[in-house]
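DATA SHEET
Item: assembly model
Revision: 1
Owner: S.N.
Input lines:
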Amino acid sequence: MIDRFHKFSYFPGCSLATTAKENNRSLHIFFERHDITLNELDDWNCCGSSSAHSVDHDLADWLPTRNLSLAPIGSPLLVACPNCYHRLKLSHMMLANSETARQQYEAMWGRAFDPDLEIVTFFELISEMADKGAFKDHKTGLKGLKVAPYYGCMLSRPPAMRHEKNFYGLMEKLLTSLGAETLRWNSSSRCCGTMLTASRPDIASRTIENIISEAECAKAECIVTACAMCHMNLEIRSKLPGKTPIFHFSELLSLSLGIGSGMGWFRRHLIDPRPLLRSKRLIP
Amino acid sequence: MKTNEAVKNINTNSFTKMDKDYARFAVEVIRRSGVNIHRCWHCKACAGGCSFSKDMDYLPNQVIRLVQIGMKEEVLKSSAIWICVGCQTCSTQCPQSIDMAAVMDSLRQTAIKEGVKVAEPHILNFHKEVMNSIQRHGRTHKLEIMMRYKLSKKDWFADLDVGLKMLLKRKLDLMPSRVGHQAEIRRLFKLSRENNHD
């Protein structure tokens, strides 16, 4: 894909556009450094988050279709949030499989359905960049950092998506090649609880404290996640004394290129990661 | 499509009258979710993989069992269908490729449609506030969702520390990020209302 495209349509999703602006910035800057331009979809809307599919089947199917209709023909749609990726992909599959749905789509948005639209997660792009050797000049970029890679539920998907690419191990592979030490641990793909953090904080706290304790048991100095929602939940729902810093994957990738200090995004963390990074001499 | 096939494969002629009453619920769940729950052989892979099964009154496979034997009220009033966040861990691990998350989605929606007493009203309220926010802005506005949700729960002080910390770190924007073409968002919500009245 990276041979064919240097420009991508980009869907940030609500979390990266607001609560996790810093992750959005680090993702943009990281790709810019690698000559990849992300053009945010003009006037995109929420994919339905974790609520539409729970309470309204039609909105779960149809909210993402508007975004699909906004994607310009000819460039892939890069999705920054793992959950938005699922919702967009499932809606695209629904349209691809049903003539009636396509007719409804075209009547609704007045734009033709593009069956060839490639919807990709930022993991897919990073994985291709790694295969092309994009990171080989930064072998010591994260030297000495002991990281627990946390996938949460991003690798889980419905049976209909079973044949899509899977990126288990990508964080381990990349962070190791950048000089970090990645740990094997028990809870790397346990769901963080998404919306339970608001509606049943008791359950969310217990789940998240378990996840963080497992990482601490494995002697992790920090946890890295690829989802802004997980990032926030792990930061706000643990009362453990360890105060293990949480990073978004894009932050560590940018940091490996020497970008991060002075950008203001570490300051927005609820658990300050700067003492750890200073002790490893990764930031001044 | 797979829904119709799944329903077609059930030969209701062989059922007695009582069987039919019980089986009707399973057929309804299959039709709504598009998932043939009769494939489940209760290996409990879903229950083992679930991060939240210990907080549920029924394990995920027990929910399926209740549907199989037609215990509609027990299922629709269970907390399990609301505690499930749809993370798909169970759907991924199921050896029978049962899309458990889709089954849970359809059960929640049936519970709402039939107006049963929901076991986890706060979770339902939260979902409603998220949908209201999307309806108003086209995107989720987290601060507003939390304020309205707290209002419905009449519980202002729980979690105040977390909320304040997030405000201080400017993680909760005061103003919503909005879609320009609001008419298009209204069109989507109209479609949903029309379909739900059918």
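QC remark: Chain A has two domains: 7-122, 138-279.
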